[in-house]
Amino acid sequence: MNKVYIVPDVHGRRFWENALTFLRDNPNDLVIFLGDYTDPYPGEGITDKDAYFNFLSIIEFKNNVVLLIGNHELHYIDKSFRCQRYSKEYYHNYHRMLTDDKDLFQICKKINSKYVFTHAGILKGWYDKYRCENIYAIDEQLNDFFLRDKVPFGDICNWYNWGKIHCEYSSPLWADIREHVSEELSYADSKNTIFRKCSGYVQVFGHTQLGTKKLLRYNDKICLDTKSVHLLDLTTGKFDDE
């Protein structure tokens, strides 16, 4: 495997279909979806029905594909995590899709001992708070942790003012790019071992809409919720739009 084709937040959009061509031409490489397949944005002309059948098409596209979970899937796994833009009509359909085949979906994927992919990125403060077992690979830790206890993955920091119970650090399904930048600055001189454990990777995530087709890199954090796909060359470590 030399290349990774990355699909950020979908929300019913069909730009991901370029991945079909990519895998046909590169059958030994990988496609990673960063989650948020559901709940289209108002004004984009995409209905809940469109988003549902789009998600079905993505799930059928299984070979050499990693499907990560986003915050907009979490509330269909458990409605107690309900957030904005929620489809009552398709709740039961989504719930079955996301829970009947748990092995199909992941929270985290690590590649080449260097790159870590999640929906919104792993904040060191959140990781430290829950003392994830660091004897395993970080993706195994988080995927196992999610299966055992989903509550910490609903953590949302105070920057989100939605009348919910807020936490100091958002989870890897909710962290905003501003939280990542703020934490990087505050931990700049830290000797915290948990900080070093997280910061040993290049993190790739979506979630925070950038309003541009170009990814945003801050140190080893790369946000690419751009409504477009991105290609990572594992040999050079370069993205196609850098």
Description of the structure:
The protein is 30% helix and 18% strand. The protein has eight helices and eleven strands. Strand 1, helix 1 and strand 2 form a beta-alpha-beta unit. The relative contact order is 0.17. This is Calcineurin-like phosphoesterase domain-containing protein.
Number of helices: 8
Extended strand count: 11
Strand order of the largest sheet: 4-3-2-1-10-11
CATH topology annotation of the domain at 3-119 and 137-149 and 202-239:
Purple Acid Phosphatase, chain A, domain 2
Structural class: alpha/beta
At the first level of CATH, what is the class of the domain at 3-119 and 137-149 and 202-239? Answer: Alpha Beta
| Low-confidence residue ranges | 193-197
CATH architecture of the domain at 3-119 and 137-149 and 202-239: 4-Layer Sandwich
Radius of gyration: 17 Å
Rounded average pLDDT? 87
In helices, the fraction of residues equals 25-40%
Distance between the amino and carboxyl termini = 21 Å
Give me the strand/helix succession: EHEHEHHEEEHHHHEEEEE
Strand content: 15-25%
